[in-house]
Amino acid sequence: MPDVSQKAFKLEAYRFSYSPDTIVVNKGDVVRITATSRDVTHVFFIAEYGINEKVEKGKYKDIEFVADKAGEFEIICSTYCGQGHYRMKAKLIVEEDE
Ligand SMILES: [Cu+2]
């Protein structure tokens, strides 16, 4: 029986990045990301995982998913948040179990 492990992260979105900008988990992990914004409304969007969550200033949003696809996925902000919006990116890395 494979272990199901839970991974929890805090993430802050701000113009024009995310902190941390890389999240690494193992395939099969149950991932919880508690996201907030420092300034304006941003979005935590991962196309391949169908995640599209609005992150508002001063509020906390729990984003939960099972990391069932291995690989590197871009996290992007899908709402226009200012001049640097198009470079606002982070990365989710899901490592395959050995
Ligand atoms: Cu943004």
Please explain how this structure is put together:
With 98 residues, the protein is mainly β. The chain has a single domain (6-95), classed as Sandwich (Immunoglobulin-like), CATH 2.60.40. The protein has strands at 6-14, 17-19, 22-26, 30-37, 42-46, 51-55, 61-66, 71-76, 89-95. A four-stranded mixed sheet has the order 2-1-4-7, with no helix packed on it. A three-stranded mixed sheet has the order 3-9-8, with no helix packed on it. The two termini are 14 Å apart. The model has no long low-confidence stretch (mean pLDDT 95). The structure holds copper (II) ion. Residues 42, 77, 81, 85, 88 line the site of copper (II) ion.
Share in β-strands: over 45%
- CATH domain class name: Mainly Beta
Given as residue ranges, the uncertain stretches (5+ residues, pLDDT < 50) are: none
- Rg on CA atoms, Å: 13 Å
**What overall form do the CA principal axes indicate?**
globular
Largest sheet geometry:
4 strands, mixed
Structural class: mainly beta
Strand order of the largest sheet: 2-1-4-7
Number of helical segments?
A: 0
Question: Could you say how many structural domains there are in total?
Answer: 1
What's the CATH superfamily, by name?
Answer: Cupredoxins -  blue copper proteins
Q: What is the H/E order?
A: EEEEEEEEE
How widely separated are the two ends? 14 Å
- Share of helix, binned: under 10%
Beta-strand segment tally: 9
Mean pLDDT: 95
Bound molecules: copper (II) ion
Q: What is the name of the CATH architecture? A: Sandwich
CATH fold assignment: Immunoglobulin-like
